[in-house]
Amino acid sequence: MTTDSFRPSSPLDQHASSPAEGFADVLVGLQYGDEGKAKIIDALAPGYDVIARFNGGANAGHTIDTPQGRIALKQLPSGVFHPHAKLYIGSGCAINPWKLADEIEQLHEMGISLEGRLHISARAALVQPHHIAMDRRGSGTIGTTGNGIGPCYADRALRVRNDVRVNLMLGDLIGNEADTVVAMRNVFTRMINSEGGTSPWVAEMSDLLLGLPKVAETLRAYIEPDRGWLTNRVREGARVLFEGAQSVLLDVVDGSQPYVTSSHTVPAYAYVGGDLSPKHHRRTIGVAKAIMSRVGRGPFPSELGGERSAQYCHDASQSSVGKAEEQSRFAADKLLRSSDPWDVGTALRMLTGEYGTGTGRPRRIGMLDLAQLREVVKAHAVDCVYLNKVDCLTHYTHSIYQGVPMRVHRDVLSADVMPDVLIYPGLTEQSLTLGREGTLDAAMNGFIDFVERHIGAPLAGLGLGPERASLVSLAAHQVAPVAGVSPHV
Ligand code: IMP
């Protein structure tokens, strides 16, 4: 149980300021991305009027299963499948217009129209062919997603290169399409010429430029020139949920350089990149994942298999080794029982499907790092945390750990005797089954208490399976405690 007794009854509570005005909550990932933010947004969306993006672009990604089939979204906010919700893409985003138009078309084919619902800031940065080429060429060192996001933000800050404006915005494309295409082609051509006249991507980039007028036509209806669009909605009473892309540990300044993304991922940036005054902020919601993962390079203190895992995953991504190859090479059940943490990490990746959504590359796997979460929660004053993939922790029962290993901060309980890793025993399939039915058994209650005490924030919900129904709201448990089981409060 946390010492500060704050527990959100629901993210829909009334905001303290003027009753006529709305408010904004900010939801961010607290680790290295891929924590399952979209799933939480999907659950919370009915309580909001606008879902808004404020950073990143097509480097983000989430797959959504719908009755009409599976769709991979990269740039549209996660609320697309909630028809009541308006969607906003703020000026802090880097837009790949080809991919965005494609997402809109795909939804259209599924019978979902975004007209009148989707608003994209005309000042959002425009990803250009030379950005994609530059990023692909230099992606190895950091392990970027190769979407041109870094070079796009760099050009935004550079503004002019060789006397040519390079910080193009979405509004430029819509306002003067012909000139924008010419400007993009010139910069790309100049880049190729300066490199000796060859590039493996010339044909692909030419095709992109040829297709741009059609793409501009698709996007035209959604471009929002009014800088105050979101402000006006909040003034009218709208409840906004900002959806962070990537995660706080990948922030361009706050993260561990250079192994970070190129935008600001911390919750405070929602109000810059999302075009709203911070006066409207109500609550910061964090999302974490019980089986941790990281893609690309960079520090990962709780990584199972340490540097060996990092190198293996790097090599695998370079040689396109993914899920199928690992499944033909390794027996997950056998690796899980090994005394080598690298084996355990590989087994967990295979058993819990930790491969990149867009790239298919194996993600590095780590144990739940409560010490790190504690720092993040404190730094960003996170009000409550949703913990996903708690069901996957039961795999550890069959490993040498025989319980859930978690990295903890030495000083949280007592200074001298605390080891860095504690094992929490007793989480069983039975605990999960009961949890999904709305009952928290003693083992699950103990686990929740343990996590809350170590991270210094209340848990608002647990992901006990991939399906919508397996997201357990802890507030609901509190309201209806189960007879014979000590309620978790
Ligand atoms: P970039 O954002 O493509 O420049 O990549 C920079 C770093 O951020 C790389 O390590 C990427 O793997 C990582 N990254 C970018 N987007 C995501 C994401 O959505 N989930 C997880 N990692 C990401």
Question: What does this entry look like structurally?
Answer:
- By secondary structure, the protein is α/β, with parallel strands linked by helices.
- Among the domains are: 64 residues, no CATH class; 122 residues, Adenylosuccinate Synthetase, Chain A, domain 3 (Alpha-Beta Complex), CATH 3.90.170.
- Helices cover 35% and strands 18% of the residues.
- It contains 17 helices and 21 strands.
- The strands form 6 sheets. Strands 11-7-5-2-12-1-13-17-20-21 form a 10-stranded mixed beta sheet, with helices on both faces.
- Strand 3 and strand 4 form a beta hairpin.
- The protein binds inosinic acid.
Write the layout of secondary structure elements.
Elements: E1 23-29, H1 37-44, E2 50-53, E3 62-66, E4 69-73, E5 86-89, E6 94-95, H2 97-109, E7 118-121, E8 125-126, H3 129-137, H4 149-158, E9 160-161, E10 164-165, H5 170-175, H6 177-194, H7 202-220, E11 223-224, H8 229-235, E12 239-247, H9 270-273, E13 281-289, E14 292-294, H10 306-318, H11 323-329, H12 332-336, H13 341-352, E15 364-366, E16 368-369, H14 370-379, E17 384-388, E18 404-407, E19 421-424, H15 429-436, H16 442-455, E20 459-463, E21 471-473, H17 474-479
Parallel strand pairs: 1-12, 1-13, 2-5, 2-12, 5-7, 6-8, 7-11, 13-17, 16-18, 17-20
Antiparallel strand pairs: 3-4, 9-10, 14-15, 18-19, 20-21
Helix pairs in contact: 2-7, 3-4, 6-7
Bound molecules: inosinic acid.
In short:
The chain is of the alpha/beta class.
Gyration radius (Cα, Å) is: 23 Å
Tally of helical segments: 17
Q: Which stretches of 5+ consecutive residues score pLDDT under 50?
A: 1-16, 476-489
Major sheet size, sense and barrel closure: 10 strands, mixed
Query: β content, as a range?
Result: 15-25%
Write down how many β-strands occur, each being a DSSP E stretch of 2 or more residues: 21
- N-to-C span: 7 Å
